[in-house]
Amino acid sequence: MDWTMPEINAPCPATRRQALERQSQLTKPPGSLGRLEDLAVHFAAMQGKAKPTLDRVWISVFAADHGIAEERVSAFPQTVTRLMLRNFVQGGAAISVLAHHLDARLEVVDVGVAEPLEDCKEIIIARAGKGTANFTKQSAMDETQLLSSLSAGSAAARRAVEYGAEIFLGGEMGIANTTSATAMACALLNVVPDLLVGPGTGLDKLGVAHKSAVIARALNYHAAGLQTPMEILRHLGGFEIAALTGAYLEAASLQLPVLVDGFISSVAALLAVRLQPVCSQWLIYAHRSAEPGHRLVLDALDAQPILDLSMRLGEGSGAAVALPILRAACLLHGEMATFAEAGIPTK
Questions:
Q1: Does the pTM of the predicted model rise above 0.85?
Q2: Based on CB atoms within 10 Å of each CB, which residue in 120, 215, 331, 334 is the most buried?
Q3: What is the CATH number of domain 13-51+332-342?
Q4: Residue 204: CB partners within 8 Å, gap ≥ 6?
Q5: What integer pLDDT is reported at residue 1 of this predicted model?
Q6: Residue 2 pLDDT
Q7: CA–CA distance, 50 with 54 (Å, rounded to integer)
Q8: Which H or E run contains 64?
């Protein structure tokens, strides 16, 4: 499969000016709604509408397995990835519950689960393989698998646009994927694992120390090949992380705003921004997770997340929790009266 880097343009500056002008006329003291005002103005520029709307929401959850799980870096066995896929489509997962109550369109994409659910027709199949390889011994994926995963993500973004979505939320599922994301973050930020490694699915202190040692060994093994974002992704990444990267780049090229979830999703966002810096202008960050590495990744992205609730579930759940706040920002911006409409003097 071939995958071409999409061309990305910045959000509309003229609409940003119109939105700022409207904010200055609303019946409130300037700045009194805090970051809600900034979010509304930025979202208006991304939509190209002075009064942005946020009714149609698309959520893609990408799932894949990781060979690095062989190194005992997760508190749960790899079979949980497969079981969670069924839970997603049956409505029992956190993101399933949130998507239902947000009236959002939720799709689940298998980009490389070790044991696929062949009897579950609700799952979209875009598999790059039966999980990545153990990246302490070889590259996580080959070039064909990398391009396939990126393409799966870009296809999801295109489906969102065809649906008429006004925002894209990406989620991920894959046992051991915090190990993969942390290894990539170390390579992208040029920092040692001890600064970034966290408990993931619930490791104790000994487990975290072991996970850090495994990542350090992998970084040393691949040191000569970690020269570009794409090579970092190929050597250390996961199929679902590559899919998120492709989705963010494609969404930005299609002028579809993105609400980025937690640590793993933010590492994918960092990859996308390193590949196409203007992509950053299409990304809104939902929350700061409890994973210690997330803070450094957000700092590298110059990101100001909406929430800080000590979440670390993944699946896109943090983005779904933050969505009502972004909706509130749009509603206030679009439906509040101006001073002129309310007959209130401005002086």
A1: yes
A2: 215
A3: 1.10.1610.10
A4: none
A5: 45
A6: 63
A7: 13
A8: strand 57-64
Instruction: Write down the pLDDT at residue 201.
Output: 78
Residue tagged 């990305």 (tokens): 8
Structure tokens at 172: 């991920």
Mean pLDDT of the chain: 96
DSSP reduced 3-state for 306: coil
Query: Can you give the C-alpha Rg of the chain in angstroms?
Result: 20
- Weakest-pLDDT range from 114-123, 217-226, 251-260, 276-285: 114-123
Cβ distance 177 to 264 under 8 Å?
yes
Task: Choose, from 37, 231, 291, 315, the residue flagged as catalytic.
Answer: 315
CATH 3.40.50.10210 is right for the domain spanning 57-325: yes
DSSP-derived 3-state class of residue 312: coil
Helices (H), the chain: 13-25, 35-47, 79-90, 94-102, 143-163, 177-189, 205-221, 229-236, 239-253, 263-275, 292-300, 317-335, 339-342
Active site residue 315: yes
- Beta bridge partners of residue 169, listed in sequence order: 59, 259
Q: Which two tokens stand for residue 79?
A: 């079979």
Q: Which residues contact 112 (CB under 8 A, 6 or more apart)?
A: 63, 64, 65, 127, 128, 129, 130, 131, 132, 145, 149, 238, 239, 240
Contact between residue 171 and residue 319 where contact means Cβ atoms under 8 Å apart: yes
Q: Where are the domains of the chain?
A: 13-51+332-342, 57-325
HSE (CB half, 13 Å, CA atoms) of 16?
Answer: 10
Which tens digits make up the pLDDT trace of 65-100? Answer: 999 999 999 989 999 999 999 999 999 999 999 999
State the DSSP code for 133: -
Determine the Cα–Cα distance for residues 149 and 135; give it in Å rounded to an integer. Answer: 17
With residues binned 3-state (H G I as helix, E B as strand, rest as coil), the percentages for the chain, rounded to 5, are 55, 10, 35
- Find residue 62's DSSP bridge partners: 109, 172
